[in-house]
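Message: Just now I want nothing more than another pair of eyes on a protein record. I am handing you a single protein, as its sequence and its fold in token form. As I understand it, each token names a local backbone shape. Take your time, and here it is.
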Amino acid sequence: MLDFKVDGSNDTRSGFGEGLLEAGKKNPHVVALCADLIGSLKMDAFMKAFPERFFQVGIAEANMMGVAAGLTIGGHIPFTGTFANFSTGRVYDQIRQSIAYSDKNVKICASHAGLTLGEDGATHQILEDIGMMSMLPNMTVINPCDFHQTKAATLAIAEHHGPVYLRFGRPKVPMFTGADQKFEIGKAWHMHSGNHVSIFATGHLVWKAVEAAKAMEAEGITVDLINIHTIKPLDIQAVVNSARKTGAVVTAEEHQINGGMGSLIAQALAQHCPSPIEFVGVNDSFGESGTPDQLMKKYGLESDNIIAAVKKVLQRKSE
């Protein structure tokens, strides 16, 4: 029986804020930089607790990445904070040259990712960031699913040496992972065992996948449900083991289908276990202004869309 206890709801950016504060308490080398979005990134508590370790760089994101790279030379562990669009698209050259190429110990923490940024519209909604960051050598890419997992991921990346892209969001979502969980970078979370179809989900789409799996269970379709919180390095063994068991795969993400988690899973399956696969994500489109719920529905990122993809791939499996 697929059942998760929901402990209220909260936004994943608040999980980052709490994790950053706790990481700062544990390790005096942790410092934080923000590009004029302290409240939006929930960095207030860290700033108040450690004012000498907090740097407000203003609306100068490229400079923030350069400063962060420089701080690592003195042994600091810098966490940068701004919206996902400005954490990647605006500063890709600085990340590539000063952080990834040099293998600097910078944690790029990106809020307001995907469509659920909502009313700010297409210019602020980035749907290509996972692909952009995953292609960079040395970069680890993490996309947690709820408040608790984001907090745990923030603590884990503070202990991990090397550049990291941590992606999280603005809206409140159900909290269904454990408050005391241990986050293991690169290790997928096998949430539920099933035999008919594998669903690999990440970020906000994990809860949508849980809803879809519950609905399909009532129809007699059992889902092998896996949370891909670490997109790079991808847990290829978990992907292959599940696909071999079920013979059919669906991926779900709040990101472009092209170049996202689904593309990386398809690549892994092509190499190790060719399987019919369907993708739930944004189909080669920019976003637009609207409430998060309106946009998730319009762009096909709901549990119903996951169910439709499952039925389509099961049909292909039987042919």
